Structures are given as C-alpha cells and as structure tokens.
Amino acid sequence: MTESSRHVPCVGAIVFDPDGRLLLVRRANEPGRGLWSVPGGRVEPGEDEHAAVVRELAEETGLTVRPGRLVGVVRRGPYRIADYLCDTAPGSASAPRAGDDADDARFVDRAAYADLPVVEGLTETLDGWGCLPRC
Q: Which residues form the Nudix hydrolase domain (predicted)?
C-alpha cells in the first residue's frame, strides 16, 4: 500500500493580510467542529493541490488566492494536509466571509489568536513554520 492510498489528501492555506494578521476559519463540521484553523479541505479526484487551495479558499472564505510555496505537511489521523503560503489575488474581496465548511472567517492578530480555541497542534505547527500572526 502506498502512502497516498493510506492518507486522505488535503490542503490548507496560510494567508496574511497587509497588517500581518492570519486568516482563520471556525470549522462548522467535524473534525474540529467549533475550533479555529487555517482554511482548507480535501483534494478532489483529478485536482492538483494548488487548484484545491484556490477552490477551498473561495468556498470557505470568499477570497481568491494565489498559492505560493509549500510551507509544510502535517498528518492528522487519516488526513495528509499540505499547507501553502498564499497571497490574495488582485481584485479579491478584502474581508473574508464564512461559507461552506466554515461558520466564521476572519483575519486575527496575535492577541485575538491567543484567545481562540484552535484545533490540536495548530499553534505548535504554525510556530515551527514561523507562520503565527505577525502583529
């Protein structure tokens, strides 16, 4: 059995606004319902990871993004999540709006991040990648 057949391929997006605040969504469904995380989701059959990031961000936040470099990969249970650093595309909405699998979406600074209940391992992972809110 190959690694790809043992894990569900997923993507996540790390997006900062011009002030250095990090985009987070509150998950509306399991796993992690009611907890905050970076937006993302499953890669659909025949879809590459960059296309999945663009689709998931549009569905969950209404933002159009341009995926950049792969920041890192995490495994959570059956999920293999490839997280990409993304920029909002020119002409994209500036304020996220929750949709699809998210019941809230917002850019958060360090103080707001510290007050949110986040999914297990998120803070440690983002800190290790240098991707916590910058302000």
A: 6-130
HEC-encoded secondary structure of 24-82: EEEECCCCCCCCEECCEEECCCCCCHHHHHHHHHHHHHCCCEEEEEEEEEEEECCEEEE
Predicted confidence at residue 5, as pLDDT, reads: 59
Q: Are 44 and 53 in contact (CB under 8 A)?
A: no
Q: Give the whole-number percent of the chain exceeding pLDDT 90.
A: 77
Sequence ranges of the domains in the chain: 3-128
Cα-based distances in Å from 107 to 42, 48, 61, 94: 22, 26, 11, 10
Quote the tokens at residue 130.
């240098």
Cβ neighbours, 10 Å, residue 43: 21
The residue type at 77:
G
CATH topology of domain 3-128: Nucleoside Triphosphate Pyrophosphohydrolase (3.90.79)
Kindly tell me if the per-residue pLDDT of 65 is higher than 50.
yes
CA angle 71, 82, 93 (to 5 degrees): 80
